[in-house]
């Protein structure tokens, strides 16, 4: 890329495709080193041919062209133009058949995009632009085609041959080979194509849809993993039922297949009727998977299943619309997880992710609206903004409309656009048309980047019994967007009396009160809401359930936060009041306040521990101090070591002060009964392990940790003990690590945890330990999960370890350069911590920048890495 810099693509340049591919017949002659792909397409002009012929443009990368024919006539060299990534036929007829034969080498595919091998099995990943590495094709989501696919391979090594749709033919061939033909009756874009060929165990089940149709469910895993499939299958059935009940959406094919593979760049992929999953989001049993793994698997299975409607039947017109399917689908899977587990816990976990990671992205050099205007490499736009902020934007529509009207909107969207490739604007319009509302100002959420700030002023007029809330909004500049127009921000609000009751709310101009909770709509830079008939000055409860993705500055005193911690009726806000109080205490200490435990925080902590009416999962959430990344987010100049040390000091002081209560909970929460993975049991384990984490650094705590490690019969308790021991460098932590390795080194997903816990250990010497882990015989730079466990855990989950010594920046740059030559997508993702160089002190800033400059000078870096590095240097 050093010769010609990668070019940006712009939304404003979108034009409809000139040709449609009505059908495609694909034949794969599968061999690891040489796979021959024969593609026969029926092509039809999508413009008026009377106005002159237009060229047909096919995308293709790293393909060897063997032959080409049009309507059965060979096309010679003069009949086409070929470049590194396109094949152009200059003057084709308006309707014709095109046959293209190409060869590829799956065994050399380390980027894991297109057709590649994982554990000796063939599999594919086509989103966003991987299909062009398989064959020449108009690889854009608005070209929707009917696919028929024949797979040919050795029967012995590849008894299982899968593709999208229905199996319509199969048979034996000469030389020990066999074939299977698949036909997918649905119209789909090329990014939803998939094939799998290998020797895999099939675990089968079935599901009866609401209209009585029988769907076969097939889960394919490596032999030996069949005992870890039960949870995934149960999750799939729950998701299928839930989408029928909540959205009225039923599955449409006869079979739903899921294949688990160990080498996968991301979490999972929603290919039509044939999902391919990172095995980490499929395989689970209590001995090997934590409670968090179980919950995540249920969520990811649901997410991919929900895409069948929000993504597959209705897809994106172009990749600028990515949040159309991802934001909506994340919103759907979060509603599902909330229904399956706990609404408040799910909301807290989602908001934590948003505040710690998405807010940072939205304030950094890669900030972009949920519908970007341009991109260089689309793979870099599978971001927290597209996914998590995208889901928040859909959630705001849900909050503004309410559940019934939202459902009317989604029904209209699904009906109106079934079988189409559409835009985020079509989604918003369906919501408007179904309900007769105007969301034109709301659309700014799709167009403007950055996290808005909402500041609150309050005034109580005792004589008039009037309470005035004045809200101001502003939004900082982001790359390419210096000025922002006001957003439409739903601020869900209640007013709490000093006794803790939510008061009836009557706004000025209303004749009677309408409930005790209202969605105030802030759509001007500044707005005042006047409440009448308020008998005494209340404490406002604002942005309930985090009703908008903004930074709220409520202007609360410490005492008011403590009041909210005890009296809020909104579970999310109650938790958040505690977070805000703890955040304040930590920031004051970092800024030089005397090193002592804040009395108010300690009292609040004690109250929560003493309140036995609370849900244990929520108690665990409330006891957790804000994560280091969130504290960093709230400081002007980030000092990662000071944040770490201070947070540790507060934790230790709380533990010391409340040791009895923590120990009592720890003992009382021991679960004597049979092991269960339900919300109640998970919540108790969560709280017990939160107590353990506080106790381990205290006198005698490491014995308790080691005892739990030895006694644990499940991965949740085992990992919690191991993390507590290793992250506190407690006595015998090495012994536990050694034992864990010997017990689990043959299970790659558990071994990932072993690597990750060490790479995230904050004590001095982290860099050296990480370097040793890279030399471990079980480290493999070609496996993305392993790379994320070691390098990812160190640079993204260990701020103190990573920022202690600038040598870590050099280390990361070296790793990125090396990774980039193998797998650019994974390399570009690892870059994130360096891109935020502006947030640090001068010496760190310069050291980080120097490494970015060094990466940019490396010849032939990928467009993925190029885009991230150049944007972060130029911002
Ligand atoms: C739940 O979105 C939430 C997000 C793209 C790959 C899966 O279905 C997907 C794919 C990336 C990042 C996050 C997720 C996915 C991808 C994901 C998975 C489960 N279409 Br990249
Ligand atoms: Zn998705």
Task: Using brief descriptors, characterize the structure shown.
alpha+beta, binds ligand 7MF, 875 residues, binds zinc ion, eight-stranded mixed sheet, 40% helix, single chain, 31 strands, five-stranded mixed sheet
Compute the average pLDDT.
Answer: 98
Helix/strand-derived category reads alpha+beta
Uncertain parts: none
* Percentage of residues in helical conformation: 40-55%
- What oligomeric arrangement do these chains adopt? single chain
Strand order of the largest sheet: 6-5-9-3-2-12-15-14
Number of helices in the DSSP assignment = 28
> Tally of extended strands?
31
Radius of gyration from the alpha-carbon trace, in angstroms? 28 Å
Bound molecules: ligand 7MF, zinc ion
Separation, N- and C-terminal Cα atoms: 21 Å
Rough shape? globular
Outline the biggest β-sheet.
8 strands, mixed
Q: Percent of residues in beta strands?
A: 15-25%
Written overview of the protein:
This protein is α+β, with helices and mostly antiparallel strands. 40% of the residues lie in helices and 20% in strands. The protein contains 28 helices and 31 strands. The strands form 8 sheets. An 8-stranded mixed beta sheet has the order 6-5-9-3-2-12-15-14, with no helix packed on it. Strand 14 and strand 15 form a beta hairpin. Helix 12 (616-623) runs parallel beside helix 16 (679-695) and helix 25 packs parallel to helix 28 (863-874). The radius of gyration is 28 Å and the shape is globular. The mean pLDDT is 98. Zinc ion is lined by residues 303, 307, 326, 329.
């Amino acid at each position: 890329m050093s010769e010609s810099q990668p070019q940006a693509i712009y939304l404003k340049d979108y034009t409809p495709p000139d040709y449609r591919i009505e059908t495609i017949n694909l034949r794969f002659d599968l061999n690891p080193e040489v796979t021959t792909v024969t593609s026969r397409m029926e092509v039809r002009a999508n413009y008026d041919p009377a106005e002159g012929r237009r060229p047909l443009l096919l995308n293709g990368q790293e393909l060897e062209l063997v032959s080409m024919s049009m309507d059965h006539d060979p096309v010679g060299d003069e009949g086409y133009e070929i470049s590194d990534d396109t094949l152009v036929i200059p003057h084709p007829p308006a309707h014709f058949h095109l046959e293209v034969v190409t060869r590829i080498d799956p065994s050399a595919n380390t980027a894991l995009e297109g057709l590649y091998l994982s554990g000796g099995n063939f599999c594919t990943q086509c989103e966003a632009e991987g299909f062009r590495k398989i064959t020449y094709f108009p690889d854009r989501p608005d070209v929707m085609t009917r696919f028929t696919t024949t797979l040919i391979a050795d029967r012995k090594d590849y008894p299982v041959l899968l593709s999208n749709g229905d199996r319509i033919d199969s048979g034996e061939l000469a030389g020990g080979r066999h074939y299977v033909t698949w036909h997918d009756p649905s119209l789909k874009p090329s990014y939803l194509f998939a094939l799998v060929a290998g020797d895999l165990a099939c675990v089968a089940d079935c599901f009866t849809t609401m209209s009585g149709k029988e769907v076969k469910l097939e889960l394919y895993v490596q032999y030996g993993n069949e005992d870890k499939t039960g949870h995934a299958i149960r999750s799939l059935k729950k998701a299928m039922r839930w989408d029928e009940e909540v959205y009225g959406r039923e599955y449409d094919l006869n079979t739903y297949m899921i294949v688990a593979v160990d080498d996968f760049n991301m979490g999972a992929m929603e290919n039509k009727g044939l999902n391919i999953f990172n095995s980490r989001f499929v395989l689970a049993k209590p001995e090997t998977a934590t409670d968090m793994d179980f919950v995540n698997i249920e969520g990811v299975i649901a997410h991919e299943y929900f895409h069948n409607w929000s993504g597959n039947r209705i897809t994106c017109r172009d990749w600028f619309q990515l949040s159309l399917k991802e934001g909506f689908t994340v919103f759907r899977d979060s509603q599902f997880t909330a229904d399956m587990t706990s609404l408040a816990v799910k909301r807290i976990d989602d908001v934590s992710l948003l505040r710690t990671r998405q807010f940072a992205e939205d304030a950094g050099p890669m900030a972009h609206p949920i519908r970007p205007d341009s991109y260089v490499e689309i793979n870099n736009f599978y971001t927290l903004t597209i996914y998590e902020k995208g889901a928040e934007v859909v959630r705001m529509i849900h909050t503004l409309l309410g559940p019934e009207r939202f459902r009317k909107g989604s029904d209209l969207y699904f009906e109106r656009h079934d079988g189409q490739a559409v835009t985020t604007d079509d989604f918003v319009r369906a919501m408007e048309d179904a309900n007769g509302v105007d969301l034109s100002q709301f659309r700014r959420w799709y167009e403007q980047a950055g996290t808005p700030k909402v500041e609150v002023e309050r005034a109580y007029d005792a004589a008039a019994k009037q309470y005035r809330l004045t809200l101001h909004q502003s939004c900082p500049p982001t790359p390419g967007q210096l000025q922002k127009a006001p957003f439409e921000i739903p601020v869900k609000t209640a007013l709490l009396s000093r006794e803790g009751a939510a008061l009836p709310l009557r706004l000025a101009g209303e004749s009677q009160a309408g409930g005790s909770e209202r969605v105030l709509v802030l759509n001007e830079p500044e707005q005042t809401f006047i409440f009448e008939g308020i008998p005494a000055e209340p404490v406002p409860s604002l942005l309930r359930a985090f009703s908008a993705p903004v930074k709220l500055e409520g202007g609360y005193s410490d005492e008011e936060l403590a009041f909210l911690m005890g009296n809020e009726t909104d579970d999310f806000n109650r938790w958040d009041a505690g977070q805000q109080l703890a955040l304040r205490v930590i920031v004051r200490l970092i800024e030089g306040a005397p090193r002592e435990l804040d009395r108010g925080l300690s009292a609040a902590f004690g109250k929560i521990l003493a309140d036995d009416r609370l849900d244990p999962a929520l108690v665990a959430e409330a006891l957790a101090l804000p994560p280091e990344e969130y504290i960093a987010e709230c400081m002007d100049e980030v000092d990662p070591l000071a944040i770490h040390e201070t947070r540790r000091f507060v934790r230790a002081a709380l533990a010391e002060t409340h040791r009895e209560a923590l120990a009592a909970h720890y003992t009382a929460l021991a679960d004597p009964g049979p092991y269960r993975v339900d919300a109640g049991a998970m919540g108790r384990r969560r709280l017990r392990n939160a107590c353990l984490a506080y106790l381990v650094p205290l006198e005698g705590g490491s014995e308790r940790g080691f005892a739990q490690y030895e006694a644990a019969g499940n991965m949740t308790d085992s990992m919690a003990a191991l993390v507590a021991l290793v992250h506190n460098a407690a006595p015998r932590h090495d012994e536990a690590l050694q034992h864990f390795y010997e017990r689990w080194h043959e299970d790659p997903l558990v071994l990932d945890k072993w690597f990750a816990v060490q790479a995230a250990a904050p004590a001095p010497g982290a860099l050296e330990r990480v370097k040793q882990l890279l030399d471990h015989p079980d480290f493999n730079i070609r496996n993305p999960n392993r790379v994320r466990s070691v390098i990812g855990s160190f640079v993204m989950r260990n701020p103190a370890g990573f920022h202690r010594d600038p040598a870590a920046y050099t280390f990361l740059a070296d790793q990125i350069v090396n990774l980039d030559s193998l797998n650019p997508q994974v390399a570009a993702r690892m870059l994130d911590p360096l891109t935020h160089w502006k947030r640090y002190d001068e010496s760190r800033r310069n050291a980080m920048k120097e490494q970015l400059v060094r990466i940019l000078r490396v010849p032939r870096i990928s467009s993925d890495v190029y885009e991230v590095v150049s944007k972060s240097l130029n911002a």
